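so ive been stuck on this for like two days lol. basically i have the seq below and the ligand is zinc ion, smiles is in there too. i just want the complex predicted, nothing fancy, no docking runs or whatever. if the output looks off dont worry ill sanity check it later, just need somthing to start from for the group meeting slides
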Amino acid sequence: MRRLLFLILPQLLATGTCDTSLGPQQEGKHEGEMLSHWSYEDQNWGKDYPLCNGNAQSPINIDTGKATVDKELPSITFEGYNLKETEQLDLSNNGHTVQLSLPDSMSISRGFKQKYLASQLHFHWGSDTSPGAEHTVDGTQYAAEMHIVHFAAKYESLANAAQEADGLAVLAILFQVGAQDNKNYKHIFDKLQDAVEGATIKIPGFDINTLLPSQLYRFFRYNGSLTTPPCFQTVTWTVFNETVLISQVQLDKLKTSLKTGHRTLDSNFRQVQPLNRRIVFASFSSLTSSRRIVPKAGFSESDGTDNSANGIHFTLGDTLAVIFGTLFGCTALAFAIYVLKQKRQRSNAERGQKVIYKPAATMES
Ligand SMILES: [Zn+2]
């Protein structure tokens, strides 16, 4: 099986497995077409790709109340993410997603037990009738999701690393809709309409850091898989707690600009998979603060994909905080009333004594 996968892997990767596509220079839409015959409409991928029926698949629903807090999880530090304008990046539509190639001079230098090099980033989105993120949080599906794919430096290439247990590290960023365009994403979104299926366009390098949420130290971590066939269970997932805002216009561009064959490329997300016995770790304590916050001040939430007020996502920790806060408030108020009452009684008693005392003095005189 492993040998067979090794033989077919280059074709699988070349024909649009969204999480591990090689750079467009290595792509050829028609190569291995027989082997990459899968779609999002029929997600019964296991019959052609048995690993997709594995017990450690992605995406998953992240139940924040059940996540195991591990404050030892180190923050992620990036190197080389600020690309020069002279660095040309390939933007391509591989029929399953739109993907931006990244140079392997970009890396995650800290945050894992080993060094990971960047390969590409790509997006998952919904349609007019549905949001399109892959990971859900406490059952909420956000508007869209971006994956930044990295491979372990020791395996030297994405293709080599893709089948190794510790081969891949993918960063997931969830999107919500805000009131304004997110200018950091213009580099990509303004070019979407030019990304004809199978073609590659060039965009100048820019600071990839600006695509990330600001709180890089708050994230969920678990072991999972590629979210597309062949579903290798070799991905260490990092799902950031903080969402990134894009405008409705930008989200609509993502939903409508790209074509595959004669139809619009949309709803390219996999259904959530069973967690089974896996543990989801959180790098922060849900009992202190685990709100999904928005990165830029002044943005309002209006995408309708988040049922909670103002797009802020409350977890069990927040609920407990509200309950204990209310209880504490009530106790403090009751105590204050008691103290005031006591004071008033004492003062009345004192006044009473004076009243009694004065007539006695009068009687003496
Ligand atoms: Zn993906």
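The first helix runs from residue 2 to 14. The chain has a mean pLDDT of 80.
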